[in-house]
Write a structure and sequence with these properties.
Elements (H helix, E strand, L loop, with lengths): L1 H11 L20 H40 L10 H10 L1 H29 L4 H30 L12 H35 L4 H22 L3 H27 L5 H13 L1
Helix pairs in contact: 2-4, 2-8, 3-6, 4-5, 5-6, 6-7, 7-8
Length: about 280
């Protein structure tokens, strides 16, 4: 009985001790917190790595197909800074417009999947921030669906003979609303991504250089959106820089999550230390 009591006291000593950092030259006891902590955290850790890989594939799928869609489909009927000319091209290429609309529905559905995966990765770290980030990314997808509806509305709106390059006032109005919708959408994606990355950064789930890169890139996108809404010419330049930074970031974070996953060691160590303090 006396020996058992001493063993219990030994296990409870050192609340700040991190597993794997026991006395130099001395192996950890078989029944120590290290073994228990590792066994307890193995399943959750494996689950987090699985979620991270799915999130990585989602990132790559969304960003690569978005670029292809913009080049192959959207580029056929978009005239930068000229709503009426863009509407004319949409009427000239209705097949491309409908194909892009179908793609965007699928893409924004994938955005919701990615948002849920990121929420599952971060909810146990900071439930409040993760929940707000999830809502922002879902709002992004809902605004995207609205943009698709407005796009199809342009095709099905009648020409009324107004002088705007032969295009009616209604299609141009719908196009301007669609354009505004996508600019507001960029605010949602920026804030949602920054919040998710902030949780990743605090938990050290990803390298600091990667999370800082992402937060700065999306902060730049967040700034560019209201600038464009207000019609500031500098907004186009800022948005172009933000686009390069965010696209390259999403490719890198997608590949990182697939190959490296997330580093759960720091979180596990802190969680075990807190449990020992109790």
């Amino acid at each position: 009985m006396g020996n058992e009591g001493n063993e219990d006291n030994e296990e409870n000593k050192g609340p700040g001790r991190i597993p794997g950092r026991e006395r130099k030259g001395g192996p950890a006891d078989p029944g120590s917190t290290k073994q228990g902590g590792t066994m307890m955290s193995r399943e959750p850790s494996n689950e987090l790595q699985r979620l991270a890989k799915w999130a990585g594939w989602s990132y790559l799928l969304i960003i690569i197909t978005s670029i292809l869609s913009l080049v192959v489909l959207g580029g056929r009927y978009t005239v930068m800074g000229d709503s009426a000319a863009s509407v004319v091209k949409m009427f000239e290429h209705p097949g491309f417009v409908r194909a892009n609309a179908v793609y965007e529905v699928l893409m924004f559905s994938a955005v919701i999947v990615l948002a849920v995966l990121l929420f599952q990765l971060t909810a146990h770290l900071n439930a409040t921030i993760a929940r707000i980030a999830l809502m922002l990314r879902v709002a992004e997808a809902l605004l995207g669906y609205l943009g698709v509806i407005l796009t199809l509305g342009i095709l099905y709106s009648a020409w009324d003979g107004s002088p705007d390059n032969g295009v009616g006032a209604l299609p141009v109005l719908l196009y301007d609303l669609k354009d505004l919708t996508y600019k507001v959408l960029m605010v949602c994606i920026s804030l949602g991504t920054i919040l998710f990355l902030f949780v990743f950064h605090r938990a050290r789930f990803l390298p600091h250089w990667l999370t800082i890169w992402g937060m700065l890139a999306f902060a730049l996108m967040f700034v560019s959106s209201p600038m464009q809404i207000l019609g500031l010419k500098a907004g186009v330049i800022v948005n172009g820089i933000a686009a390069v930074l965010t696209i390259s970031f999403e490719v890198v974070i997608g590949a990182w999550l697939i190959v490296k996953g997330v580093d759960t060691g720091a979180v596990t160590d802190r969680g075990i230390s807190r449990s020992k303090e109790r």
